[in-house]
Amino acid sequence: MIKTSIRNKLIVLLLIITIVPFGSSIVITYLYTKNSIEEQVVAESKNLLYQGKVNLESYINELDDLTLSLYNNPDFINFMRNPDQGDDYLTIGIVKNVVQTILYTGDTINGVRISFRDEDRVIKATKRSNVIFSSKKNEEDKEAFLRAERSPYNMYIEPDFPQKENEIKRSRNIVTIHRAFRNIPDDEVLAYISLEIYPDKIINLSRNLYTGEKEEFYLLTPGGEMIYSSDLDVTDDQNNQKWIKRIVGEEKSEGTMEWKEDGFNGVIMYDQLPLSAGGWILAKRVSYANLYESAFSVAKINILFGILGLTLVVLATLFVSFKITSPIRVLLRNIQEVEKGNMDVRLPAFGSDEIGLLGVRFQQMIERINTLINREYKLELENKNNQLKVLQSQINPHFLYNALQSIGTVALKNKVPQVYTLITYLSKIMRYGMNMEEDMVPLDKEINYTKAFLLLQKERFGDHLDYRITVEEGVREAQVPKMILQPIIENYFKHGFDIRDGVGRIELDCRSVDDHLIITVRDNGIGVTTQRLEEVHDHFKAAALNKIGESTNIGLKNVYVRLKLYYDDQAALHLENSDEGGFKVTMELPIEREDE
Fold this sequence. Notes:
Pfam families: HAMP, HATPase_c, His_kinase. The chain is α+β, with helices and mostly antiparallel strands and 596 residues long. The chain folds into three domains: 1-162 and 171-233 and 241-342, no CATH class; 348-392; 468-545 and 553-590, Histidine kinase-like ATPase, C-terminal domain (Heat Shock Protein 90), CATH 3.30.565. Helices cover 49% and strands 19% of the residues. The chain has helices at 6-68, 74-81, 89-103, 142-150, 200-207, 242-249, 288-291, 293-339, 354-393, 397-413, 417-434, 443-461, 486-495, 530-544, 554-567; strands at residues 109-116, 122-126, 132-134, 155-159, 163-164, 175-182, 189-197, 216-220, 226-229, 255-259, 266-272, 281-287, 440-442, 465-471, 479-481, 504-513, 516-523, 572-577, 583-590. The strands form four sheets. The chain has a six-stranded antiparallel sheet, with helices on both faces. A six-stranded mixed sheet has the order 5-9-8-12-11-10, with helices on both faces. A hairpin with a 5-residue loop joins strand 8 and strand 9 (226-229). Helix 10 runs antiparallel to helix 11 (417-434), helix 11 crosses helix 12 and helix 13 (486-495) runs antiparallel to helix 15 (554-567). The longest helix is centred in the first third of the chain and has 63 residues, at 6-68. It is rod-shaped.
């Protein structure tokens, strides 16, 4: 019952066509929103990293230009070439002035040092002390000086220690820019100029490149050492932080990658400063949880509205299903009662829609069936009585044939052959008409019967009647309804023969056209008026609908109904007045019936 119930099928169908689109919409919306947000965040982060890279590069280049500006001072260059000859007060003053100019050019510069390569001489100054000429070198700077000397840009940036978020220590340097000062145009290194930089501006620039607790930002050296970290728990240990090693080993200077190790699951974007500006790496990490937070919010809203919508849809589906199927179930119960023989069923009103109309029609059908059953019962009783009467008055056809044969024999004995011929024609006609075992006959047999009928009429009217029969050889074996011609020809003698002009003529023509048998019966009567033709066609329609009409033209009506019975719409009957005068009847029959 569950599988065959239209109610259950309708409920399942409606639920499928509502749940599937709603569920698909939620999933597609979530996926699209997630991908869109990911692309948007990645694009914004890459743009932000690029802007931060430009700002850091500009800042470092600005500091580097301070050391390059020393090449524009001839007195300072002469001193660097011959420091032993520059002990006079004028030269010392020039050197102090140059050092202090660099020191106070930028707010973030904490100190300036000039370390001569071949001599143990150092010139240094900070914002807390004056310019000091010393003979004590810092041995810890040798490695940094060597890197600056080997660099194609004569510059090396040395971060002194990792700087964590909210740990700005102004008393200690975070960055030292070392420049190898060469004896231009020679390659000889005269000294090393070191700028000690406060971390403030670098920290501020870094803070502008990420969002609070949702994103992480790191500033790394080209070797992977941590310069700045927004997360206190992340160090530059590349054994535990494999993503740092991965970025440092990348050939590309910028890119994006997904990462699911080291306790992090998300997207990492990175960009790198040019080597001329230190080659620092800017890296930004965004976890999927923060990345898809907006998508999750949108998905939750969609799911909430989806559940609400689905609830309404399910309720509406159940309501519609029960509303539609309840009347059908009532109809089914009543049909089952009718199957059991209970014809006294009464249906409630189902409304004015299609189902309500179906209920009304079903009730009318049951009432009509009851009426027909009562009528058939009465007709059957009447039929039994009529059969008894018919049996009482029935004449044995063989007795009639034998009687006609005896009369014909007497006519021959009395030398009246004409009477014998007429009796023979009559016998053929009666034998043909009373043979109830066949309803379809060959056309040739129907033509012979028609000839016998016309010969009797010819004997009756003599020279006042003339007839002609033309039959195409190829259609003689075509099957036609029995006695289909006699009512049409007899109609002429009933309505047209007595009011003719001159000799009465009737023509019968049978031929084939496009797999159809065309039978034409034409007479020379006065024809039929247009109004009368319309009445005849109306009688045909009434007969086709089994409606009782007038008895006029019962022969033509019989022919029309039989053609409809045997051929349905494959046959046609045309009635018209001939152009030469008289009436013409044309029958168009298929030579082979489709349902034969």
